[in-house]
Amino acid sequence: MKKFALGLGVLLLAVVAYLAFWPVPIRAVSWKAPAAPGYVGPHAVNQKLAGLKLIDLGGEEGPEHVVLARDGKLYTTVLSGNILRMNPDGSGREVFAHTGGRVLGCYRLAPKRGGMFKPMRVLICGIPNVGKSTLINTLKGKRAAKTGDEAGVTRTEARIVLADDFYLYDTPGMLWPRIIVPESGYNLAASGAVGKNAYDEEEVAYELIAKLKADYPALMEARYALGLTPEAWAQTHDDELLEAIGRKRGALAGGGRVNIQKAAELVIADFRALHIGRITLETPEQFARWLKAGKQADAERAARKKKLREEGHISPERKPAKKTAPRKPR
Ligand SMILES: Nc1nc2c(ncn2[C@@H]2O[C@H](COP(=O)(O)OP(=O)(O)OP(=O)(O)O)[C@@H](O)[C@H]2O)c(=O)[nH]1
Ligand SMILES: [Mg+2]
């Protein structure tokens, strides 16, 4: 032990001697700070801001941001969701637009964030393939995140620095762990929010056709020209319609048979590319109805499962996995 301490002492001495005596190319010289000149030059006291005039926002709270636009008007965003427009002197104030939400930005939502030490961190999240990465690229003003016309393009979380004190996080699209509303599952698949391998194109195409023939028969006729009246579209079976569309569009297999898989892909692609037209797949009222039915079916399923478990027909419920602490953002 003594030997070790002695050795350590010698080593320390050697390091100190090296740092103290080894010649280095820097020569230390003394520096005398000049006397402060006082408030002169650009810092001299002036009256340039003496004429400042507070612009009345008419009871609105804000502004967060003000822009003097090319039309010579001031535009400003306020808490109510309004965008106000006025002359530079504040006269002629009017509501230019109502955004329907809070236009005041992230700093108001997270007032303790800001500056280099506590940068604003904003997570962009949503279902797959809805334009999250595209939004980030637009905000950044250049292609910083990979985008593509399919679900699952962004595979890992990525940080995009908008400013020294403002980070955006691009995230992979997320869906619910279980979709209890079957109609939503089909609609998500048709709209491209579900990965290609997670659904059956034929099944989704049939569901899509069932909806379109009922709600948009004229658009379907305009696209596929099957020579059917709206009533005939609504009354013809989905199988027959998909086959007729496939035949019309040349999605054929050997022997003159229709390649149904190809026809299904074609209808889905047409729908996504707006070739059929502008389509609304569901309304909030419809969804509320489906959700109610979905929840009921789910509860019945859970009750059946519980009964089977109690009767010993199926294995006991597994304990939920231990939760790990969420990763701290960088
Ligand atoms: N028409 C239209 N297309 C858009 C818009 N925004 C994005 N897109 C297109 O939608 C597709 C998906 O865009 P992404 O930005 O990759 O979508 P994402 O949400 O990041 O997708 P994932 O990373 O897969 O979850 C791309 O082909 C974009 O060009 C938009 O505002 N209008
Ligand atoms: Mg993405």
Short characterization:
37% of the residues lie in helices and 10% in strands. It is of the alpha+beta class and 330 residues long.
Quick tags:
3-stranded mixed beta sheet, binds guanosine-5'-triphosphate, binds magnesium ion, Conserved Hypothetical Protein Ylqf, Chain: A, domain 2, single chain, 330 residues
Topology record:
Blueprint (H helix, E strand, L loop, with lengths): L1 H20 L44 E3 L5 E4 L4 E5 L7 E5 L7 H4 L10 E5 L7 H9 L17 E6 L2 E5 L11 H10 L9 H15 L1 H8 L5 H6 L2 H11 L11 H13 L11 H27 L20
Parallel strand pairs: 5-7
Antiparallel strand pairs: 1-2, 2-3, 3-4, 6-7
This protein binds guanosine-5'-triphosphate and magnesium ion.
Based on helices, strands and strand pairing, what is the structural class? Answer: alpha+beta
Provide a count of the helices: 10
What percentage of amino acids are in beta strands? 5-15%
Task: Name the overall outline.
Answer: extended
Cα(first) to Cα(last) distance is 44 Å
Tell me about this structure.
It is a single chain. With 330 residues, this protein is an alpha+beta fold. Helices cover 37% and strands 10% of the residues. Strands 1-2-3-4 form a 4-stranded antiparallel β-sheet, with no helix packed on it. Strands 5-7-6 form a 3-stranded mixed β-sheet, covered by helices on one side. The two termini are 44 Å apart. The mean pLDDT is 90. Bound molecules: guanosine-5'-triphosphate and magnesium ion. Guanosine-5'-triphosphate is lined by residues 128-134, 147-149, 151-154, 172-173. Magnesium ion binds next to helix 3.
